[in-house]
Structure formats: structure tokens, C-alpha cells
Design a protein that fits this description.
The chain is an alpha/beta fold. The chain is built from eleven helices and eleven strands.
Length: 406
Amino acid sequence: MFAKPKTASEPASRFNPRNRPRSGGGDNALQGVLDALKKPYVAPGLAFGAFVVCLVAFLNLAGDPDAGSPSVRITLDRPKPVTAHVDDGDPQSQALTMDGQGQFSDGFDAGDSDAASATAPVDTTAVITLPGDAGPTAAPAGVAAAAAASPLPKAPIAGLFQTTATGPLPNIGPNGMAPASAYARPFRSDGRPMVALVVGGLGLNAETTKQAIEQLPPAVTLSFVPYTVNLQSWIDLARAAGHEVMVEVPMQPVNYPDNDPGPQTLLANARNDDLTAHMLWALSRCTGYFAVSNYQGAAFFKDKAGFTTFLATLKARGIGFIDDGQARDAQGAWARATADRVVDNQINAQAILAQLTGLEATAKTRGQALGTGMAFPVTLAVAQKWTQSLDGKGIQLAPASAMMHQ
């Protein structure tokens, strides 16, 4: 009924820990882990933790396509900002310039000292990959060499200008030589289809202006904004690099005055003396150009009387006129051409390249084609590479003056 009491004769060794069977320490640890895993929620918790670790590692690798590639970290010195000087009341001080992402930025001039300070190199490089490119390529040395080998005569040429209070006005020489031919880039057709390209909006942004002058082939025609400070220095640099040049005449757009090209704009239905005064201001801003081009002007071109005065003034002074296509249907010409395409209505590399390819097709069909564009960084980059490809396609790059007819 009651348990039997222990007696002294029973061996005490059964309660002595030192007499228990020995086992290895590793076996004890493994047994402890196994015992812990048998407890509720321990094994699922460990599995979930392992899943989270793997997921985080996967996301880090997937979010960085170069995670498994060797990398080098470098420090670049940002260029110092360029000091700008713009004419008082210049309406285009924030126009005609864009950064590499296609966003408008403040425009600036060539400067007000000399050409060297105006065109000081900026230590930056923009790489734009075009559709189908294998990778970025450096500007060919042949472009600079060709420009250095084919400079145009320094302007003004004696007998082709008239000194006035506002500046030198172009004039037909006593021997009948007109600035339209004297200042044009010499050209001879080799019988292949011809394409010409005008790059405009130059002078307000020193960096893009310098890029256009130095990196585009000499056969590309450059067009400058008359509001540019120290405009003659830019004209001289462009001609020294082999480029023929034009000056842009601001003209009234359809949405004027909300869109105002500036105080010297040629207005539709303006008094004849006002119109002439604005024209002579633009023509006297510099010398060495063979033609003028329009900056806007859709409304002005509808004014037949004003446009007739405009063309008559150019003819009297021996200056040609090349428009961006808006004056295609306007009648009356002396030395005249109109563009087939504006190549950068959409400011992205693929769209610009498509427009330039369209010029090639027009040239092959009609024998020649003329395109215009603005000095946006992406336009300059695409145009530079495109011009390098023309010879291999059986197309001759020509200056815009070669497209003019009388």
C-alpha cells in the first residue's frame, strides 16, 4: 500500500551524474537543434526568414543591371557657369536653347569682349546614342581638318558694303558682284543627288554655337540671330571654319503679340518706312552673310505688300532669301530657296534622324533637298553623324546657297 522505503543497501550510483553514459558534445548540440525544430512555429519562422533574405538579394540584383559587372567610381569637376551678356530688352534671351534632356534653359551670347573669351571651351561632353548605333563615337578628325583647309574670305569684301550709322549694309559691287554670290561657299555638283542643311538659332548660346561651328562639316550652312551681342565675331569664326552664314530676320507669327520675336520684328500691314527701318537694322548687324532667313513669320508672309517690299529690299542689296518652308507659296523671288523639311519639329534623336532620312529620299527623287533645324544639342549630334553617312549613300552634301534659284 505504501512505497517501499529506500535502504542503505541499495546502490546509490544510479543517482550519481558522473555514472551516466557519456556521449559526444556534437551529438548533444545536434539533438538540441532537432528538439528546437520540433517546437511549434520554430521551423516555419526560420524558413520565412530565409525567404526574406533571398528576396532582398534578388531585388537588389534585379534593380541594378550592372550589379555583377566591374565598376569604377570617379569624381568629375562640374564646369563653371558661363557669364552671359544680352542686349537690353532681348526677347530671345531664353529662346532657341535647350539642354541635353530637351528642356529649355537660359540662352546667352557670344560675350562682349572678343572671340577668344566668347568661345572659351567648356570641359563637358554629351554622348547621344542614335538609333542603330553600336556605341558612342568621337568626332572625326577629318571634320576639323576640312574646315581648316577651306576657310572663306574674311568679310567685308571691298565694294560689297555701305557704311551707315547702324552698321555695314550689304551692297552690290560696282562690277555687279552681289553678296549673295561673293559670300556663298563655293560649290560644284558632282552629278549625285544633293542635300543641304541649315542650322539656325545660333549666337545666343555660346557653347552650342561653338559646337556647330567646329563639329559640323563646312558645307552645313549656319544661321545667326541678329539680337546676338558681338555677332560679327561669330560670323568671322564661322567663315574661318568654312561655313557660309545667314542672318535671321524676325517676322510676325500668327499668335503675335503673345509670341513676340522682338522689337525689330517685321509686322504685317506695317507702314512701309517702319518695315524698311526694321529690315535695315537686321541687315546692318554684321557683314559676310549671303542670304537672310526667317525667324517665324507665318502672319507676315500673308501681307503681300509687306513681303513684296521685303523681297525688293533684298534684291536691291544683292542678298538672297531662304525660308524654313512657311513662305513656300509666297510669290516673287530674286535669289530664293525654301526648305523641304524642318528636321527637328520633334526634338528627339529618332524623329530627327527620320526627317533627315526623308531629305535623302526627296533628293534621290527630285535631285536636291533642303532641310532646316535649330541648334539644339540633339540636333547637332544627329546632324553631325548623319552628314558622315551621306557619301556612302551616294548623296552629295551641298551648302544651302547651291539650292537658291533666281
